[in-house]
Batch of 4 targets.
Target 1
Amino acid sequence: MENRFLSKYHRQNPIRDFSARQTMYDLVMSINANNMDYSYAMYFGKEYPFSQLKSETDTLAAALYHDGVRKNTIVGVCLLTVPEVDSVLLAINKIGAISYWLDASLKPADMLHYLEARQLTILIVHETLLPVIAQISSLLSLKRIIVVPADKALGFPDLVHSMPDSRIVSISDYRRNSFEDVSPVEYEDGKAAVIVQSSGSTGMPKSIVHTDYNFNAAVKKMAYCDLPFYIRQRALVCAPPWIIYGLVNSIYSGLVFGITTVFTTLPAEDMIYKHLGEFNFIYGVPVYYRYLYNKMQELTFAGEIGKAELKRIRSILRQVSVFISGGDKVAENELINWQIEFDVPIINGYGNNEVTGAAIVSPRFANRLGSIGIPMHGTIVKTFDSDNGQMLPDGEVGELYIGGDTIFTEYLDNKEATQNIKYTASGIEWVKTGDLAYIDSDGYIFLRGRTRRLIIDKLGYKISPDNSENYIQSFPFVRECVVVGVEVAENDTVPMAFIELESQRAGIESLLDTIKSGCRENLKDYECPKFFEIIDKIPHKDNGGKQDFLTLEKLAKEFVTKQQNIF
């Protein structure tokens, strides 16, 4: 079943070898036993050695155990991208409890729902999020709120000591409650270790259950990539810890590989620019590369001062070995422009929460434009006819299914949704991605839209938005385009294009006419958007990651109701 020839794109031997059948705590502490003086994290210039990670992990684990946390207890975690993510993950894992990672952007009512639905008694939260907790504190049955303080040097106010809630304690004070060390639990196959939330970009968010084996196997696959996951490298992390791309592929993998993770608190569009010189490679999403590219373009025309700054940027970029991009697609012409400007290879990563992050990655030395890459070592990828469940031959477009040993256990308390996304065929358990794709003769995978975003018009045509999005985005003045379906009558859905321009421009109507004319000439009649709207910014979920299709569909419905810009 597996395409054996794909091994030519992978390392014959992993960068670091280890057994995936152990707890995360045991793996990190054993594989770094001789590296305790190495830095596992850097945060605004300060470095944190592995010896500090071990001490903070062990004391937190003991304090949690003393506070009644036991095997399979669910502990809520709501942190920003800070070094404490590592010690919290490992401490909870050491005692066999389950870390439940909550989105830091949740509204108070949603936060209340997630905390109370699981009857959580302990929450570990970043200090800047205490105002959200304060709005719902009287309704929470939590017995302890452990606060990771914000760095006061960054201008954050002291909130820990200003809130009149006896349940609140700083994490440093809480650690002092540990009287003696606790022994790590033994590894168990199939035991829940981590719960994360799906992004909800194509439906209601769901709680996704993963095991120690899932996390360790995902990192072991990374060890076979042709990427520079070498000990003592520095990796800038742009993805938050409540999504798998951030927690596993970016942060946890750094602990296993002995990489220094550069933490950034809150993702921002300019974060790569601000942290130039601090990293050798990046786990990013397209919006950050877009900012750096646009910044460099602006400096080209900014006189002598601009030229000097541009020279500085290019000099620093020479120490960067690769940019890793995940979370959303990048148009071919945009990717080419970035690589020419940065003079740094950019590789795509593709996956989802259900398969523990990245499952498909572009080889650094054999990248193929337009492709999302090849399956990672030991991962099986095929296309299926989603109507009848039949596997399709390579070259045919179908729904992309991913099989392997990193597939999630279940959606918590949602058996129906679990059964809907999992599929067993040829003795393999698959996860349905919802993406349309085809696989070429060399095993490279090319996306061709989403089944869940397919637009079916009144004539029964199944319209993939990708074709029209790619065409519209090929115009040099278009930064980003998303096409969604909008219902104009019962059983009649048509495409609508939302367009973000490269910059504020005069003559928008003229540009729009150019796009409309081009669509009429180059797209099939049923693919051609029937409505167009220029908007200031395409909305994204996950801090610049996946495009927020649900929000755009709502905007489209409102737009059509007002009958504006009818095409």
Target 2
Amino acid sequence: MSTIRLTMAQALVKFLDNQYVSFDGEENKFIQGVFGIFGHGNVVGLGEALQEPNHSLKFFQGHNEQGMAHAAIGFAKQNNRRKIMAVTSSIGPGALNMVTAAGLATVNRIPVLLLPGDVFACRQPDPVLQQLEQFHDYTITSNDAFKPVCRYWDRINRPEQIMSAALNAMRVLTNPADTGAVCLALPQDVQAEAWDYPEEFFKKRIHYIERRELSNSSAVRAADLIISKKKPMVICGGGVRYSEAGEALADFCEEFNIPFGETQAGKSAVVWDHPMNLGGLGVTGGLAANKIAAEADLVIAVGTRLSDFTTDSKWAFQNPNVEFISLNINSFDAYKMDSKPFICDARSGLIAISNLLDTKGYKSSYADEIKTVKVKWNEEVDRLYKAEMDGNDYSQLRVLGLMNEELFDKDAIIVGASGSLPGDLQRVWRPREKDSYHMEYGFSCMGYEVSGAVGVKLAEPDKEVYVMTGDGSFVMLHSELLTSIQEGIKINIMLFDNNGFGCIDNLQRSQGIPKFGCELKYRNPITGRLDEGGQLIPVDYAAIAAGYGCRVWTVKNSEELKKAVAEAKKSPVSTLIDIKVGFDSMSDGYDAWWRVGTPEVSEKSDVIEAHKTLKENISKVKQF
């Protein structure tokens, strides 16, 4: 057997550089590069290997470990999980900073390879700088924190272990049913230890992502159930995008007169004005999808994990005879809501069922209901797009309307994650091209917006990428804005400054609780509360971005916004537009309900009333 002597880190880089995926006959290099922040735990091991010019992995310097991992996730998500980035950090705090991102990737079923440095496997220098010592178990390190948030975890305590670990990592990363975060913890000394690796380990490997077909008997069972129903509806989830099933879903729904609602991850798999597209469904959905959902007698869930925001905490489907079908490659998701599970690729499953329904001449019993709710909802969105606030405040919804209808190119990609914007965007944003809506809403992780957009721009370098973020989320994490400047990755940040956490303030007040702790105002240092008439903190977010080297604008009205966006398009570097909007200028819910832990006992009568409503709605939910 022919061998080559390399350090473990060198062997890992050489292996990663030779991994490919094939999907529908199209072959792509799987791992495109590495985001990294070097410290003593990885710079002389993996860092030395990456520095060598004998591989094609591009290195991107990150500036916060969570942020650069988010950028890698954004890249993989926008590439429909068929191209990814690896991410490396030092030990201790650097590694732990990536745990949140690992959770985000696993929740959203997005592949990301995390390579944190670890303590010495030999234990001779212990305790080293940043080493966590557990008195009851000396084998535990900070990197054990990755175990509950990763699909696969391993620690490489001998250099030859990297071979089985790397293959298992690829097994998970390329499996659409089981993918998520993968963590390979790399002890500092082992990174630099050499081994005679078989050359066969480094050969080009093609990982075939096969479409899981729906068996004929399963397709018959699904078709028979659909035929027995009069008013079915489809839920279009993220799996529709990842399997590139948007066209198949649109054809299925149009042929059989079945309307569909979108999840955050599924939005833009089909353009907004398709005749069967009712728009967003659930807590952050619109009136059209929610009204149809309440009366549907069958729900066909395609590629969705049926989160509480999609199902209104299992309250949305009020027809007493409603049943559920789930087409999903992941059996864990397919069984939710007591669905009849059909484990299959979204596109393959839809086509197989469609062929059977076609032979039976099936059509739903909807008459004018679909068109009626669409017309009413479109009229409501048009109204919101033109709404102005009382006084001098600028409406967030008015801003979105201008951006969507006038200012952004139709192929522009918007990126969001948290705050009030995901609700407004799922309700009112009208995607005019597929895959132009990129929302991380499984974890709804504040700080994903800027970082994720860097990854999206790497995936779509020829399109304008717009970050839709609130001031609260921007403050939490915007370090990869510097990465965008440093690496020449232009993004455009649309910062909606409403002076605080407006989304949570709205939730707080909706449950009868007075304003508390959500507005960005000066606070009394003695009481920890707001004084009467507390003053807003006049933060200049444009100045912050200018300090990084961005082109910036501050706007307070539509004319200023139009000018700023036009100039931002021409900018060769990243931009930020600080948009001063009113605190209460987001949209409300439309025939939706979200279950939150409203207190059962309180001195506030409004809270008690809210709890009564909670109990009433709980009595109407599907209990499993």
Target 3
Amino acid sequence: MISIRERKSGGGRDLSPFGAFSMGEQILFSLEIHAPCAVQSAVMVIHGDGWGRETSVWKEYPLTAVDEYRRLSLDMKQLCTDTSMDDGGLLYYHYRIHLADERVLFYGGEAPMELSPLTKEFAGERQLLVYDAAYTPPEAFGEGILYHIFVDRFAKTGAALTGCKKNAVIDPDWENGIPQYGEYPGAEVANNVFFGGDLYGVAEKLDYIASLGTGTIYLSPVFEAASNHKYDTGDYLTVDPMFGGDRALENLCREADKRGIRVMLDGVFNHTGADSVYFNKEGNYTSVGAYQAKSSEYARWYNFRKFPDTYECWWGVKILPRVNSGDTSWQKFIYEQVIPKWMQAGVYGWRLDVADELTAGFLEGLRRTVRRLNPDAAIIGEVWEDASDKVSYGERRQYLLGRQLDGVMNYPLRDAVIAYVRYGDVQALRNGTEYLYRRYPKWASENQMNFLGTHDTIRILTALGGEEQDAYTNAQLAKLCMTEERRKTALRRLKTAYALLAAMPGVPCVFYGDEAGMEGYRDPFCRRPFPWHNMDEDLLAFYRSIGQLRKEESVLKTGVLRLLQVTEDGVLFARDPWEGEDCRIVIAVNRSDRAMHLQVPADVPELIGDCVIPAGQYFLQPGQAVYLRCPISIPAESFALTME
């Protein structure tokens, strides 16, 4: 039996959980090898990412025997030079171990410390990401939760009626109305039915929003557009009149700031609406749009295959003509007019729609613009996969090198939490937490948008307890609700899921209404109006307690994740302090349908938050979670979860 553990340290810190470092760091790699015979030598074999390159430079670095360890100190800048990755980027490595019995073994894998054997083809090598040493992460973004609002469905004051546009239909049934839907998924939908939510309504609910522990509000698109969802931008320089216009956004930013809350906008810069100032296919604007004349000042923004009716669209959707984000005049418009106007109006940061479809040059220019206007602003990209090694449109993306994004939407964590809480999938949880965080820079992990649901996904309550949606038509899904028994189970699971998510590195994001117990299947059924007169008060109280806890406990913002115990029944993990803290937080979660015993050390740690069990009763009921604050002098390994 051979086992190999890898530890890393730099600047006096134990960096075992990480595989991404700054260009300016010196990292010590240390192997602990247990083998049935002597180890003759150990070599690190490392190479630069070969994607998009004619050749990939491979280097070998022997490790030196020191006591019972094999060690290697690497300067990240020199390493990048050695492997022809001068600006940093993605590298891969494995270890070659020579034993005295003449065996040659290869080890790698993505576990934080325990390495696994590889074949000679080296499938499953370890990633190493080297990012810009000058990068500085945003400080304020991680303070509190993120609250995601789909504006037309959150709260209304009547502004939509005064700003109502041509062809718009107002559905007056806020409490029971069903969003407009197509006959089948992907069918064309006008999206011209509105429920009347507006930005003044959001402002009126700021105290409610603040009670959830909110630090930042993330708004679905607010710029003028024909649809209710506003992803078909008509005019980037105008807030939609049905949302209250420019003054409504300025008022929201001002009132939110009084409560210590920031406002983040949805930046839709990959496509515009066909019905827009810039394309003007419907002739509703006075401008000469790209659809109307090849001589239009906007014509070069779009790609026509046959003018004017055959043009490149986002995923073939004709109302969403795709913009060439590499075009310099488009970039100048966004950088010099759009971003400055709204950030000067009080906007804090940006979530970038379909970031995979924006060019690297556009993202880098956008970052420079945003950071010039606010050095602490956050830019979060919509990326559905692992962002550390993402390939899209034949290009290896470089989102996390400190030049483009501060973080991404954490779909892998969402999938992992659902798989674990509903189905008990232990490996999925490990893959979506410690394995993923190992590949990300620490700052990127801390700026992940961690969510359980969005406007693009099935509602989390339904995901945790509802029936499989593929067996139903849209007409059936529009009215399908959980049985009382299913809903009871789903509510228990949702508490488990949110307690788990909120304790992970990253910023917890709540999609409006999840905290109130909203159900709903795929888009658009996940976008119903907020149930202001029918909220689940018990669930709401739970969300508030977790949100306040997350806002108050700084170790949950910057602490290092360490999984201590993961079984189908429950999970036990710690957030260890990174700096300046003398306490860690240990989190225990029971996902089983039976009570679990929580073993604690003799010096009982402090139980924190309204959601936890009374002191001295260390039994977790089904679905229950507990957060414990304890001094770092108490080993986290002295905690344990066992079935009764």
Target 4
Amino acid sequence: MTSDARAVPPLQRTLPVMLRRQAEMFGSRALLRIAGRAWAHRDAADAAAVRAGALAAAGVTQGDRIAVMCGNRIEFLESFLGAGWLGASIVPMNTASMGPQLEYFLANSQAKLLVIEAAFVERLATADLARTALREIWVIGEMQAGAWQAPAGVRVVPYPEAGEAVEPAPVQPGDALAILYTSGTTGPAKGVICPHAQYFWWGVNSAEVLGVGADDVLCTTLPLFHINALNTFAQAALTGAEVVFESRFSASGFWPTMRASGATVVYLLGAMVPILLAQPEGAGEREHRVRIGLGPGVPSAAGAAFKARTGVSLLEGYGSTETNFAIATAPDSPRGGVMGWLRPGFQARVADAHDVALPPGEAGELLLRADEPHAFASGYFNMPEKTVEAWRNLWFHTGDRVVRDADGAFRFVDRIKDAIRRRGENISSFEVEQVLLSHPGVAACAVYPVRSELAEDEVMAALVAREGVPVDPAELARFCEGRLPYFAVPRYIDVLADLPRTENGKVQKFKLRERGVGPQTWDGRPARS
């Protein structure tokens, strides 16, 4: 089926065409199960048309932005498909975000409408909505009376059931379908502008890597506000498969969930596999239909142990929100322990600081570009300087240091950018530092990653206390909990007399990383896992 998708003419690589194509090709075949709701393939276009009608009735027009903050439920997909049908862009917001992050997302994107689950509404109390273009809020579920009052000029209504069906807008493959915020490395989070054709190619490439066909059942426990899970819908839409979205990842409930869903393809992140392997062995790990999984960032030894226990091979790969599934392994790859080999339709270069290509075996920054138009993101929303910087010399600069071996395989070395990845989330050290510096007892700080036992990063902060003001690391962590997503709250905190700096005063984070966790370090081992 995916070979047919590759033959779709360039001007037809849009969400409305994708939805009409799947309705025609796959009709009554099962498409979707999510939070007790189900769709056939022909239902997706109808759902998009009536949700677009409701959005249009609320004053949303082509080119507008719609923010969404909810868990894995049907309203998320309705809003996404309706926005794409209408020619608007969806702005998914991480459900762990607190007031300051929500304010930034809404202000930067200038979203006119917010779709939000009732459980998250109170977080808007610490966001200054006057800085935003927000005019209307749709609340999913029952909101507690008196919990929060919207400011003047912002209308709050229950999530509308449906609107009058409208015809799709004349969207083009390069028009923005979504703005996906990925954490900045030395500044605020950047809104990645994802065009319709990029979403199309995410579905095509991922389905090809995994060998997805019409008889497959795709199952993910990952959140829809990330491209990984959102992409599974495209895979199903293009191939006639069925996709099951679960509400959350549970180590003890993972295999029972896979059995109940009938899953044949699963999606995991690096840290999830060691967590699953830490569970007691049981027959349930083999009593399932899963034939393959996608597991980017899974350590090689963990992947081998996972296959030995479950019978499921995990494929590696590389693709950021800005790019596409450009590098991947395959079930018959000659060796493991690598990100994979370059896929058709993409070009890659391992380059030095001047973008000059390096020979095999030498580490450098991974640069990528696509052969097909609009297969990559088109930039960062309202950040022209950052866009030019990342896409300079006609290559996208990933910020990741890799090695290309003589056989063409790419191996990940480390990240060049000052970013932290924890629990599958990219964390901006800058944003964590800003919260720490807002504490009255902190004079200076630096936030950086240290390795954890789960083959991912933990967040560590080194700080200098204000003179005469004692700092309690446990109290500081509690201070962060109300101002940061849970995964961004520092686990480790060092209180130092001063931070290592260069001659011009810049903090030398590499020295702090090398110093790492010591006997004097406060360890607030997270309750969540």
